Amino acid sequence: MSDALRVLALVCTLKPSPAKSSSDLITTQLLDLFAERNIAGEAVRVVDYDVRPGVEADMGDGDEWPQIRQRIAAADILLVATPTWVGHMSSVTQRVLERLDAELSETDEEGRPAMVGKVAVAAAVGNEDGAHKIIADLFQALNDIGFSIPAQGGTYWNGEAMQGGDYNDLDETPEAVASANATLVRNAAHLARLLESARYPA
């Protein structure tokens, strides 16, 4: 069985590079864990690209989603990391889902939707409640598009209610978050290798 799997992380912070981002931090932690399992990865901060609104694979006129889409197509595992804003995923995350909708009409040589056979996982961070709902919404959408969701494929950090502070302000990663991160990576790697060796039927 090949170990040559790849993970692509879409960091859906509202902050352009090089601003510090809690979504970027948890993504880095997860990519480091994937690397320990010989799964190479890269992160794309989506807000740094001109991703046009729409539900087509290419909206034309300078749309930079197609180059992100190529990286998704080349990956075996997709990680979506989002901040929490007013209890919801970021607008950048929602736009990613809208653009991924186009993949339902893209099929492989045997008629499967293009994303069938790829694994998707999610991370949410924020100093307010909402992570469970965000991950539920992400998993529903990503599964509709064709991604497979591993057991316990979500991780999150919520700050204390009605207080300030961000994930990237912590002195160390809370034990519960570190454990959830490790479980996410372990199960995503397992499922991706299973799907690599046994594809879904056409």
From TrEMBL:
What is this protein's record name?
A: Flavodoxin family protein
* SUPFAM superfamilies associated with the record: Flavoproteins
Q: Which domain of life is it from?
A: Bacteria
Q: Which Gene3D superfamilies match?
A: 3.40.50.360
Q: What are the boundaries of the signal sequence?
A: none
One Pfam family this chain carries?
A: FMN_red
**Organism of derivation:** Amycolatopsis rubida
Sequence ranges assigned to domain NADPH-dependent FMN reductase-like in this UniProt record: 6-152
